[in-house]
Design a protein that fits this description.
Layout (H helix, E strand, L loop, with lengths): L3 H21 L7 E2 H5 L2 E2 L2 E2 L9 E2 L9 E4 L20 E4 L8 H12 L3 E8 L2 E14 L4 E5 L2 H9 L3 H27 L15 E5 L15 E5 H8 L3 E3 L5 E3 L1 H5 L4 H7 L19 H15 L1
Parallel strand pairs: 5-7
Antiparallel strand pairs: 1-8, 2-3, 4-5, 6-9, 7-8, 8-9, 10-11, 12-13
Protein name: HNH endonuclease
GO molecular function, one term: endonuclease activity
Pfam families: HNH_2 (PF13391)
Length: about 300
């Protein structure tokens, strides 16, 4: 149990933080900076929403965790998505250190026991985080130094009843939709400086993170090197094999499309892209995988034969 005073303060703080994030994180700018999170104001005081150097944030006057953080690591220093789903399809969050009784870890356990929601800040670039909230700790696994996290109320309800084998695939799909897909999108969009790699359109809400190799492919991992920032027109054209991207980063437009006569969108948006070189991420380790491009380009060629 926690005191009435702490329970009231905790509930008001969490509600205020989530309302602020609702307003701050828009479709055009869904990520928030470390500086903003460190300077959050509540009841006339600065209360940081994440910790300076720890993954679990518990303000000094609280016994229950407020937020958890997954730190950004560069593309060439990590396996894609460290927070892999467990056997039940739910994401796992690792403890701080190797002692389950360390106070950070106890604060997560208390959130589980009291059914108190948290905010998960997922690093998508240095100093930039994609917030996911509210999330709930639904299982504690001290032997593995981790806990299970439900990404929304539906996952929380399913976990409370016990996740059957048939439900696992559904829960894992929900996990991808709520965490992995948004994180993949933000990492790809940031790598390409919020710009379509083909036409340089810079409106974030009109950009997609397109997979080079699809999810169903054995190598279709949600990694930046398997992604391209494309405007919605060029994403659809890429998926429909109207345009292809060669391993040398050149754009090809399907022959029959080049021969068509239509309005300005076809002429300027597609036909004039023939032979263009895509704009690459500044960081070399984030550039598209040439083998993946070659495989996908072969699919384009087969479709145009």
């Amino acid at each position: 149990m926690i005191s009435v005073v702490e329970a009231d303060f905790s509930a008001r703080l969490r509600a205020a933080a989530m309302v602020w994030l609702d307003r701050r994180c828009t479709p055009d700018n869904p990520v928030v900076s470390r500086d903003e999170l460190m300077n959050f104001q509540f009841d006339g005081h600065r209360i940081a929403l994440l910790d300076y150097s720890r993954g679990i944030r518990k303000p000094a006057n609280m016994s229950v965790a407020l937020s958890i953080v997954t730190t950004f690591t560069p593309e060439n220093q990590r396996a894609p998505y460290e927070d892999a789903p467990g056997p039940d399809g739910l994401l796992r969050y690792k403890y701080q250190g190797d002692n389950p009784e360390q106070w950070d870890n106890v604060s997560l356990r208390r959130a589980h026991q009291l059914n108190i929601p948290l905010i998960w800040f997922y690093g998508v670039a240095p100093g930039l985080y994609l917030p996911r909230y509210p999330v709930w700790i639904v299982a504690d696994e001290p032997e593995q130094l981790q806990c299970a996290v439900a990404m929304d109320e539906e996952q929380q309800a399913i976990a409370a009843l016990g996740i059957s084998a048939p439900q696992r695939r559904y829960v894992e799909r929900m996990t991808r939709q709520r965490m992995h897909q948004p994180v993949f999108r933000e990492r790809v969009i940031h790598a390409y400086a919020t710009s379509c790699t083909i036409c340089s359109l810079r409106h974030a809400s009109l950009l997609d993170a397109a997979h080079i190799l699809p999810d169903a492919h054995p190598d279709g991992v949600p990694s930046v090197t398997n992604g391209l920032a494309l405007c919605k027109i060029h994403h659809a054209a890429y998926d429909q094999n109207i345009l292809g991207i060669r391993p040398d980063y050149k754009v090809e437009i399907r022959h029959d499309i080049l021969a068509e006569i239509d309005g300005p969108m076809l002429r300027h948006g597609l036909q004039e892209m023939q032979g263009a070189t895509i704009t690459l991420p500044h960081v070399r380790a984030e550039r598209p995988n040439r083998e993946a491009l070659a495989h996908r380009y072969a699919v384009f060629q087969a479709a145009t034969a």
